[in-house]
């Protein structure tokens, strides 16, 4: 039986420029699989490090955390240490290793995609489901290009037009891949304030709301709406997303957005806190038809 990745013992993944490569979903999956095999052998990171020609335990930690590329020579030595001798299993794991090392489609956008966005993009492409809430702006995967451009210009007033163009292009690619090529389910709790306090003016907001109405019947998207008025609405979770994966890939991961970057929460207690908060938010939100009606009302106000 193949090893399944254990829940990561790491509590917070904070991506800073000096922290090496951004962890991608495929590297995290393979790293978690290696960790599971190591722990099944009752070995510590330093034990594995000694077997790799005396490298540091921190290298093993980075490999298992998905922030380090995998050399096949190192991986084969770990297979020997962990007693992975079955030819089919070794071939399967080497396939995972090569996939983890493969360049992603967004490599050409690294100049406009910070590390937390690189990781985010990889997670959204492999997740079975994304549960998200944003209060300051619309969720990236449902934005029109005009809305994205206005949003970026508002947040980055000094950015060169070429930089803004590339950011818009990158988000367009993400949205296209999600809508046309992905199997990921999206559960989006929309905050009404993002409709009344928009970006880009009336025409931009009208096109954006029409786009939301077009996506309303998408088979993989579920919309809910938090009203702008009301008491005791549990919005304290703030802008965040919960990524759910297949059982043989990764445990759930939470992304929490902050002013100067994002945090990825991986430990069970933190994830459970966000899942419960999101459940409360869904209960407080208007359901499908009420949400669609409110979108239609806003479309009329922008005409």
TrEMBL record:
Gene3D superfamilies: lambda repressor-like DNA-binding domains
Domain of life, source organism: Bacteria
CDD domains: HTH_XRE
Domain (HTH cro/C1-type): residue spans on this chain: 33-89
InterPro entries: Cro/C1-type_HTH, DUF5753, Lambda_DNA-bd_dom_sf
UniProt xrefs under Pfam families: DUF5753 (PF19054), HTH_31 (PF13560)
Name the UniProt record assigns to this protein: Helix-turn-helix transcriptional regulator
Lineage: Bacteria, Bacillati, Actinomycetota, Actinomycetes, Kitasatosporales
């Amino acid at each position: 039986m193949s090893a399944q990745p254990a829940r990561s013992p790491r509590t917070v993944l904070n991506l800073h420029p000096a922290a090496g490569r951004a962890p991608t979903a495929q590297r995290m999956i393979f790293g978690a699989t290696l960790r599971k095999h190591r722990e099944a052998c009752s070995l510590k990171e330093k034990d594995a490090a000694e077997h790799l020609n005396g490298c540091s335990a921190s290298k093993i930690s980075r490999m298992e955390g998905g922030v380090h590329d995998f050399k096949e020579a190192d991986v084969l030595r770990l297979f020997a240490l962990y007693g992975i001798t079955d030819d089919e299993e070794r071939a399967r794991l080497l396939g995972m290793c090569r996939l983890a090392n493969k360049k992603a489609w967004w490599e050409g956008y690294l100049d406009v995609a910070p590390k937390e966005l690189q990781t985010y993009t990889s997670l959204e492409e492999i997740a079975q489901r994304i549960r998200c809430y944003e209060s300051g702006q619309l969720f990236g995967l449902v934005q029109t290009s005009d809305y994205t451009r206005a949003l970026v210009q508002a947040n980055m007033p000094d950015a060169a037009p070429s930089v803004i163009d590339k950011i818009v292009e990158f988000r367009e690619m993400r949205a296209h891949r999600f809508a046309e090529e992905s199997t990921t389910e999206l559960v989006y709790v929309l905050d009404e304030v993002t409709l009344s306090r928009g970006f880009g003016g009336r025409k931009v907001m009208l096109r954006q709301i029409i786009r939301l109405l077009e996506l309303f019947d998408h088979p993989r998207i579920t919309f809910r709406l938090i009203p702008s008025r009301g008491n005791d609405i549990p919005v304290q979770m703030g802008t965040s997303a919960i990524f759910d994966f297949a059982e043989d890939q990764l445990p759930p991961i939470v992304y929490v957005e902050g002013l100067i970057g994002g945090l990825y929460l991986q430990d069970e207690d933190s994830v459970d806190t966000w899942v419960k908060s999101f459940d409360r938010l869904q209960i407080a939100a208007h359901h499908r038809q009420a949400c669609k009606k409110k979108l239609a009302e806003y479309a009329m106000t922008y005409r």
